Amino acid sequence: MELGQVPLAFSHLPMFPFFDMAHYVASVMALKEQRGAVDVSVRSPFACWFSAMLCCFGGSVLSSLMLGEPPVAFLAKGTNILLASSVWYLVFYCPEDIFCRCFAFLPLRLLVAGMKEVTRTWKIVAGVAHADSHFEDAWLVMIAVGWARGAGGGLISNFEQLVRGVWKPETNELLKMSYPVKVTLIGAVLFTLQHSQYLPIARHNLMFLYTIFLVVSKVKMMLTRSATSPFAPIESALGYIFFGLPKTPPKMKSEGATSSNGSSVCDQSSSEQSHDGVKKRQAKKTE
Q1: What's residue 228's pLDDT?
Q2: Do residues 218 and 117 make contact, with C-beta atoms less than 8 angstroms apart?
Q3: pTM for the predicted model, two decimal places
């Protein structure tokens, strides 16, 4: 196979079962790492399972709602539901937590994370094409549905948290977007322009280049343990130019300023007061 045919062959990769399984593993393990998720799995296994399915199929649910289709359509894919449910059971209920310990191995984690990013590209492309079949040449609809299909799990995170009995409206992705949601939005715009033939590049070439960027960025962020978005400098510059936002957000001081050893000033003052009180009691006893 010639080098020029690699992107075309890559664009025909089947997602089921291996790439889909990697997506399910990464999504359910991320759910388990959230505070209180393990307790929910003990109190209500059904709520935990439903929450895991929202994490795995959130894109399908949200995009279906946006296009007026049944949001439960993903349940018709019995094989995918069975595979995702099996992953959920192994992640939460495997004896001695063996399943999670295996995937805690860094090379395996990197492989799973990279394969999950591949599925993101496929979902964006499918979302854009599906929206165009309903609303031809409607740019905003294509972008919105492609964005929802690729990052639905993050966009409906508030509803998923509500299933687990947690209500944190301040974690809304629209208020503070995470990197996966941002990069999915950029991908939705790019593939919409390509689909509308305003971007002079073949679809398989764009899929290949975009996926490489996703995988490299994800692996780099995991290896460096950095949560900073690669788009942060561009976002800061654009926010300053168009909205007058500060280039670097001012550091907010906490109620108790932290000292060099990690204890706050309030803690230090209270400890000093208690130490003085001990000294006075000791003086009274000696008298």
Answers
A1: 83
A2: yes
A3: 0.84
Mean pLDDT over 240-257 rounds to 62
Angle among Cα 27, 28, 31 to the nearest 5 degrees reads 90
The burial class, CB within 10 Å (0-12 / 13-18 / 19+), for 158 is: middle
d(CA 22, CA 122): 14
The tens digit of pLDDT for each residue in 80-101 reads 999 999 999 999 999 999 999 9
Question: Tokens in use for 42?
Answer: 């003990």
Count H helices and E strands in the chain, helices first: 13, 0
Residue 258 β-bridge partners:
264
Alpha-carbon span 216 to 222, nearest angstrom: 10
Element (H, E) at 28: helix 18-32
Contact call for residues 113 and 222 (beta carbons, < 8 A): yes
Confidence of residue 1 (pLDDT cuts 50, 70, 90): low
Distance of alpha carbon 214 from alpha carbon 175, whole angstroms: 23
Residue 195 burial by Cβ neighbours in a 10 Å radius (0-12, 13-18, 19+): buried
Of the candidates 161, 155, 134, which has an alpha carbon nearest to the alpha carbon of residue 50?
Answer: 161
Question: What interhelical angle do 203-224 and 179-195 show, nearest 10?
Answer: 170
- Of residues 277 and 154, more confidence is placed in 154
Q: Tell me how far apart the alpha carbons of residues 210 and 203 are, in angstroms, rounded to a whole number.
A: 10
Please tell me whether residue 186 adopts helix, strand or coil conformation.
Answer: helix
Report the mean per-residue pLDDT for the chain: 87
